[in-house]
Design brief:
Strand content: 5-15%
Strand order of the largest sheet: 2-1-3-4-5
Largest sheet: 5 strands, parallel
Distance between the termini: 63 Å
Helix content: 40-55%
Structural class: alpha/beta
Mean pLDDT: 88
Low-confidence stretches: 1-6, 31-38
Radius of gyration: 24 Å
Length: 225
């Protein structure tokens, strides 16, 4: 006699009998209902450059890490995926976004890109096209989009400076997505602005990141509701 087959048959019978008892007692249905009642965890994807990748900072002190703490404090069930890479451009973000959307299925995508395009002197039309493409792709995947607008120093020339800032407004309007007009508001546009930046005068210091979070939090909270 094959005792292994006999034992497997007994195990199956035991499982069937146990399932019948649970079903008749209502326990099975209550467990299933409780599982169904659990709210799904929302995923928030941040696609940015060094401003969001904690460049020059201790790990866990950047605005994205502070955002995770804020969500916990507000008891908002949301997972934050920080896909930011120092030095990234809008073209880099556009190339990486399809795989990120497929993997994480985010409810909200925060796009913080474009500054490095300006630093490299890349055409504004290309940056605009990339921002439009990323926003539309995220929306096609069922995600909301929040654009973090940037500005460039006046030494770029008044026309370029105005067109660069207006680019984010135009993309947000065209795609009906949310916008923070100036991500570095209260940091780069104040009289003592250099006190808020690291020695390179490009990347905000740790002390500035709570301000960055304050700039984006109202929009993020609204979009997650």
């Amino acid at each position: 006699m094959d005792f292994s087959l006999q034992q497997n048959d007994l195990n199956r019978r035991h499982f069937i009998a146990l399932a019948a008892v649970l079903a008749s007692s209502g326990i099975y249905h209550r467990v299933a209902a409780a599982a169904a009642a659990q709210p799904e965890r929302t995923t928030l994807l941040v696609l940015g450059d060094s401003l969001s990748a904690e460049y020059g900072l201790k790990r866990g002190t950047g605005w994205v890490a502070l955002l995770e703490q804020k969500l916990q404090a507000e008891k908002i069930k949301a997972e934050v995926v920080n896909a930011s890479i120092s030095g990234d451009t809008s073209s880099g973000g556009r190339a990486r976004l399809p795989a990120l959307l497929a993997q994480h299925q985010p409810k909200l995508v925060v796009i913080e890109l474009g500054s490095n395009d300006a630093l490299r002197g890349l055409p504004l039309d290309m940056t605009r096209d990339n921002l439009l493409a990323m926003t539309r792709l995220a929306q096609q995947h069922g995600a909301k989009v929040l654009l973090l607008g940037m500005q460039v120093p006046p030494n770029y020339g008044r026309d370029y400076t105005q067109r660069f800032a207006r680019m984010y407004v135009e993309v947000a309007k065209t795609t009906r997505s949310a916008l923070v007009p100036f991500f570095l508001k209260g940091i780069a546009d104040v009289p003592d602005s250099m006190a808020w930046f690291q020695a390179d005068r490009i990347h905000p210091r740790e002390e500035a990141h709570p301000r960055l979070l304050a700039n984006v939090w109202p929009a993020i909270k609204k979009e997650l509701q």
